[in-house]
Amino acid sequence: MSDSNFINEINKRRTFAIISHPDAGKTTITEKLLLFGNAIQVAGSVKGRKNDKHATSDWMQMEKERGISVTSSVMQFPYSDRTVNLLDTPGHADFSEDTYRVLTAVDSCLMIIDGAKGVEERTIKLMDVCRLRDTPIIGFVNKMDREIREPVDLLDEIETVLGIAAAPITWPIGMGKAFKGVYHLVNDELHLFTPGQGNIIPDDKRIQGLNTDAARELLGLDWQAFADEVELVKGASHEFDLQAYLAGQQAPIFFGTAMSNFGVREMLNGFVEWAPAPLDRVAGGERIVAPSEPKFTGFVFKIQANMDPKHRDRIAFMRVCSGKYERGMKMRHARIGKDTRIADALTFLAGDRSAVEEAYPGDIIGLHNHGTIQIGDTFTQGEDLKFTGIPHFAPELFKRVRLRDPLKAKQLHKGLRQLAEEGATQVFFPVANGDVVLGAVGSLQFDVVAYRLKDEYGVEAIYEGVNVSTARWVDSTDAKQFAEFKRKYETNLAMDGGDHLTFLAASRVNLAMAQERYPEVNFRATREH
Ligand code: G4P
């Protein structure tokens, strides 16, 4: 392949994730995007719809359909000359580090807001994460087929609560039962809503120009009021500024209804035109890796165990950062300094996982993991490189795990290590006794682990309270002081699932005391691999 083809392939890529509060419409909009990408024929065929709103059962339900839900971890589809990669953010109710790491693997995000509810709590948290890397955001205000809040108030809320300038691109013509469509403020085009086309690619009925007979006819007596509203909105809101969007300072905003598949096309068109192609990545210190570098690099941001119940395998999801993956190529697993030939990486064309022949920067490929790959690992073509910014967070909730059947200790350890490898929870093995302590960032994760231990490893686990309230990874360059620290605090020390020494403290005060006593020991709240 010539250089210009290679660059062309990179420039075609758009890799993004959807951020939203549960129930805002992420699943629904994902379906519609796949419909536009011709990845599915009829909406509703992607995954079983939820029939229970409770988060735990929602998760379990999904897990039961794992074979399907897995393919929705990463969805690749073509649209308008682009190759779009949509990365699913985990759906559980707790905000977890899983979600955070998925966001490190994308170049931009789509934010969905329920028009009736406005900016909700999870969206605020996810926006904070996006801000760490100035990720460009496109907003979609959903559920226009309902009586939602005043669109002007919603823009205002986005600006004040999320701290990002909002630039409306489309503007709704009415709402609820009186919803007629959207007006494209930049193109001066009206897009007309036809109900009942939610499961297909809807007709694209347009009127060019608001100041036309056709538009006057459509809006009837409401025309003048709408024209006045548009003038007002244009005057009072930000004009779209591509540079400000790319810098993560301004979000273009679209209105529509995902359920009726309206307004989604306009948003998707804006997305493929403006969203950034694969961006440079920092690999520690001075080293910045550009996607156009000829040599392959990539990093693992997610590991999922037993994705396909038939295969009982574990897949490491890798974002390609530079160069090109070709089937059968040799890659260097940088952390362990080992070269391996990769012949069976997977791609995730929506609805199906299949062997991938080639992949470009921005693409996600799946590697079969036999226990050697960890989250954060970098793969290269020889260079000793390490992409940064894919951390583990110290958990905040802890429980001791006990077995109903003590003979299953081996399976328990294996299960917990593998689940910890996925990054949803963390496991600690205290140095001084045979306990097993599970740590999580959110409480739902304990239920998930218990369920999966039983389902996948045949282990029944019981949780008990444990006198731990915070954890820190410890290391030091002062060998003498470190040895003394380890002696003194032996009962507080544990190895985590990746064999890193951890300090488990009963309280913040205990932690502060240890820190004061041993100033040469680093107590880290996050750990990079
Ligand atoms: P999520 O993945 O973000 O959690 O949201 P999801 O797409 O599952 O949507 C949550 C609920 O909102 C669903 O209703 C869905 O049908 C509804 N919804 C999504 N988009 C729109 C829209 O544009 N207008 C309206 N009125 N509703 C919308 P549900 O009752 O939970 O599920 P279902 O029985 O409809 O499948």
From TrEMBL:
GO terms for molecular function: GTP binding; GTPase activity; guanosine tetraphosphate binding; translation release factor activity, codon nonspecific; translation release factor activity, codon specific. GO terms for cellular component: cytosol. It holds the Pfam family EF-G_D2. GTP binds at residues 20-27, 88-92, 142-145. One of its GO terms (biological process) is regulation of translational termination. Coiled coil: none annotated. It is found in: Cytoplasm. Residues 11-279 form the Tr-type G domain. Gene3D superfamilies: P-loop containing nucleotide triphosphate hydrolases, Peptide chain release factor 3, domain III. Keywords: Cytoplasm, GTP-binding, Nucleotide-binding, Protein biosynthesis. Its main location: cytoplasm. It comes from the Bacteria. SUPFAM superfamilies: EF-G C-terminal domain-like (SSF54980), P-loop containing nucleoside triphosphate hydrolases (SSF52540), Translation proteins (SSF50447). The keyword ATP-binding does not apply. Belongs to the TRAFAC class translation factor GTPase superfamily. Classic translation factor GTPase family. PrfC subfamily. Increases the formation of ribosomal termination complexes and stimulates activities of RF-1 and RF-2. It binds guanine nucleotides and has strong preference for UGA stop codons. It may interact directly with the ribosome. The stimulation of RF-1 and RF-2 is significantly reduced by GTP and GDP, but not by GMP. This is Peptide chain release factor 3. It comes from Litorivicinus lipolyticus. The lineage of its organism: Bacteria, Pseudomonadati, Pseudomonadota, Gammaproteobacteria, Oceanospirillales.
